Amino acid sequence: MIQVLWAAGGTGFTFLMTTLGAALVFLFKKQIEMKIQKIFLGFAAGVMIAASVWSLLIPAIEEAEAAGKIGWIPAVGGFVLGVAFLILMDGLLPHLHLGEEKPEGLHASWKRTTLLVLAVTLHNIPEGMAVGLTYALAAQHYAEPGALSAAMALALGIGIQNFPEGAAISLPLRQEGLSRKKAFLLGSMSGIVEPIFGVLVVLAAGKIQPLMPWLLSFAAGSMMYVVVEELIPEAHLGEHSNTGTLGVMAGFLIMMLLDVALG
Q: CA gyration radius for the chain?
């Protein structure tokens, strides 16, 4: 039960940060400038790359080896499954990325605003899984120094990048003609999948303990797919793409420092 409670608390924090970011729609009338948007996208990519390595893949290998198994097998296998899962979701779930006109996924006669929210919701799924699993792992090793700190570091890193992400969905929705209240609610709800999937994956790990290394690397593969398929390309659109690159570097360094210093 403590694993579920910790996971709910960690993913609840990241969801709260998305909500706070979405609340910026009440303060600003205009959309975020493209240059700033690219910095935020790059920052999110950097955070997720560092988190995939230090918070997910390395612990997955260590968990497997501690159980007397070959560490790289669940790391590689789970990673591949995570990528495959996001490819499947990307191909099935109708969604529309910001700045694009043609939706992806299966054809659906849904509103443009709904498709925009679903695009952000899709890449929040692996973030929720990652935070939930690290808190579950911390609960399993609560007697070890730094176990909880490592989980808190990941939640803090994901939460930091969720703040501008919330604004990046609510402000464009306002530009699409929605009221501020509705734009805020939809922007906030784009992050609700984080506590949902965070708790669900912890429940699965709790029932079948040997799955933990596979689930950790599964979350890593899912996040890396989002980074390579979506965040980095969008951070380098147009001219002066070095702003997006610097955002990636900053996000990576901050997440690495949080994980190493607090872990």
A: 18
At 39 the pLDDT is 85
230-247 burial code (b ≥16 CB/10 A, e <16): bbbebbbeeeeeebbbbb
Output the CA–CA distances (angstroms, integers) from residue 77 to 35, 70, 91, 215, in the order listed. 37, 12, 21, 10
Inform me whether the pLDDT recorded for 249 exceeds 90: yes
Read off the pLDDT of residues 34-60 as tens digits, 9 standing for 90 and up: 777 788 888 989 999 999 999 899 999
Q: For the chain, percent helix, then strand, then coil, each to nearest 5?
A: 80, 0, 20
Q: Are 42 and 237 in contact (CB under 8 A)?
A: no
Give me the half-sphere count of Cα atoms (radius 13 Å) on the Cβ side of residue 103.
Answer: 19
Residue 202 structure tokens:
């912890």
In tens, the pLDDT along 151-194 reads 888 999 999 989 988 888 888 888 888 899 999 999 999 999 99
d(CA 180, CA 139): 40
Residue with tokens 């380098």: 236
Contacts for 176 with CB less than 8 Å, ≥ 6 apart:
112, 113, 116
